[in-house]
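Hey, can you fold this one?
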Amino acid sequence: MTTNASITRRLTVSILLLELFAALALITTVTNHERHVRFETFDANLRGTCNALLGAVQEADSKDGSVQLDLTGMSFPSRAIYRVTVDNGQILGARGTLPSISVIPGSVTRTKVQDRPFRFYMLKGERVIDPGSPGAVNHHVTVIYGVPEGDTWHAVFEEARFFSIATVALLGITTLLISWLIRRFLLPIRELAHEAEKVSAERWTFHAPDSSKRFVELRPLASAIEKALARLEGSFQQQRRFTSDAAHEIKTDLAIIKSSVQLLSMRRRTVEEYEQGLILGLEDIGRLESTIQKMLALARLEQGPKADRETSDLAEIVEDVIVQSQPYADIKEVEVITENLQIGVEVLLDREDAMMLFSNVLLNALQHSSTNGLVKISMMTDRETVVLRIRDYGEGISEEDRPFLFDAFYRGDASRSRKSGGTGLGLSICKAICDRAGGSIGIANHPDGGAEVEIRFPIFSRIARAT
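Sure. Predicted structure:
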């Protein structure tokens, strides 16, 4: 199921959501801060006005020591409420209707007046008439002053609204900038994809754009694509070469069989000649069958490891292969010796493949050995790896043959020629078996003469046995 998901769109939306969340958090923080600051100022104004009202309590013109409220030069908000009382509740001045509230002196009290939120402040003080004289009069003054909160809240909301509008405008601008920047930053990926689209079965050339190599994050991707395509190109070329070589091999064997039958049919022959022709034809058919079987084996091995693979004891396999190959070794008059074979070293390789691997390697060593020669098989292990070395004392490997030893159908010497029955697939099968089991195989000339095959496998399990 295909979708129209877009990385650009997802990145843009994700960044904008983060910005929106940050903007909301910032607006909330700013609004709370603005409210706190404005209401601190509001309460300071309440206290200041109460002190001013207390200061407005002055001595009256009478000589009885009474006081009066002088509001000269003072102004109040339109909906402000206050009341100034003295001594036993005598009201010196009042404005508006004071609600029935319990106000703690020196503190701010919130309440509603005609459904409007108000803040009230109470201040208690003293006014002394003729202080220091015997006739001094001490008056206890109580001031209650309240102002509606509406104007302050309006200012807070206006500040928040302005900040919100500015934030939305900035989000709109950043949306366009972010979208443009993301598209620009993702351009190297599109260029890389465009270059990769040009690759086909006929055109394997791939050059990563310079734009993708400038960025640290894209460099591994560009390198991985280049390496993957190089491996794929090698695999395709190997497959084409294998198909071409296989077709040539089969065609050659069929041509030999056909020519042998045509030769028999050209004239009447004796029974002995017909029998000899049939024997040669069967040999040619057997060689063709062997080639096809090896091709099928190689194809099976190159499909990758099976899900439920078996394990094999390498030492037991080597001993079985030596017994199986002994007749050929006797014919070649070559002695096969072993060194340090350790029973109980197992690898993740089933018996059939293990027998095929060591049979091909040992047969190859015997073919390269001269009469009265020697083939030496040794084993070394550590905690994780087992190494088998099969050395012959023959003529060694020529430098021109070394790069192609594991290529299918390659025959670099007489031991792999058609006359001796070789198909050129033996070492290719050996390499496929090792690769499938997570191991490796290599061939090199030994410093003291002859060739040495080195096979490495990771140890699957090692059974300790008493000697």
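The chain is about 50% helix and 20% strand. Let me know if you want another pass with a different chain boundary.
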